[in-house]
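Our consortium's second objective concerns turning raw sequence data into structural hypotheses that experimental partners can test. To show how far this objective has progressed, the report includes one record in full. It was chosen at random from the queue rather than selected for favorable results. The single chain below, 317 residues long, was entered without modification.
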Amino acid sequence: MFTRTFKKGPFEFKRINNDSPLYVRILSEKIGAIKFLPDFSEDKGVFILTDFGGEHKEASFSTYSFLICSADKRYVFEDAMISIRKKHNLISPWKELAYKDLRYGPIKMALDDILDAANNLIHGLLFTISIDRRIDTLFGPDKKSAHAQIVDLLKENNLGIWKGNEAEKLLRVCYPVGILLSILTRSEQKILWICDNDSINQNGKSRNFSHTQKLTSQIVAMLSDNQYEIFGFARPFKNDTGTSDLLSITDFSSGVIQEILHTEFFDSDLQVSEEKAKIGRWMGSKSHFLAKHNIAIMKGDYDNLEIRTIELQEKPP
């Protein structure tokens, strides 16, 4: 029997201070100010699902979407998605629910049902960070020196040999995971992070997914005293309704936020399809179980950073 849904802020990060990286301080300030975050204190397990967008040449923002949700309660969403997939002929043959495929007939027809199921049946937080692609690095005064330092630190700490851009992305992703876990989870829980296929979880000659796992575990240990029963890491499971469809929510979020921000700040004439607009309205909708929050880190005047909370509104079509 679950009785707790949200806990009230503000939230304090006692181990983050002025010596912490600027990116970490920005995130802790914005997350700490959120009025309500999901309460997982009654859950034995918590999932983290991540997807990233805005990496094509025309993109104005890189987006990093994190869905932190109850593993114990996920079955109601999974059961609903099996029914939705059967209803719209998306289960045999299997079809991934991808943002890039929103105009595919069965997905287009199923979209309302998918978004309603997510709002009503996922207990968690959908948190998306958008970073202006004109910002070369968030970890030093300039890209060259910052990337050289990051690459050296990772190598010295047996965390693999990375290229500069990949190392930057690694930190942009692993720090939010650690920050969110420190405030949303507790000791003795089982944690599983499922990361969509990406450069930070690929196995190369000089680094592999285990290095990403090790770094994340170290960040979590720096930010909290949580001792988890299990802290697991995985890539997407093939044709798995539960985790695949949860990952699709992060894919929808990272994709639509990038396009909304690009339209708002760089190209007001860009046409957004009705399916994408529908996801945008859903991102601004209220839910009794799923909190949704978005921040943007933008390049301001004189190379200063401008931090914005992105408030989307649920508007009629």
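The partners drew two points from this record. Residues 26-309 form a domain with the Nucleotidyltransferase; domain 5 fold (CATH 3.30.420.10). The radius of gyration is 19 Å. Both points have been shared with the crystallography group to help prioritize constructs.
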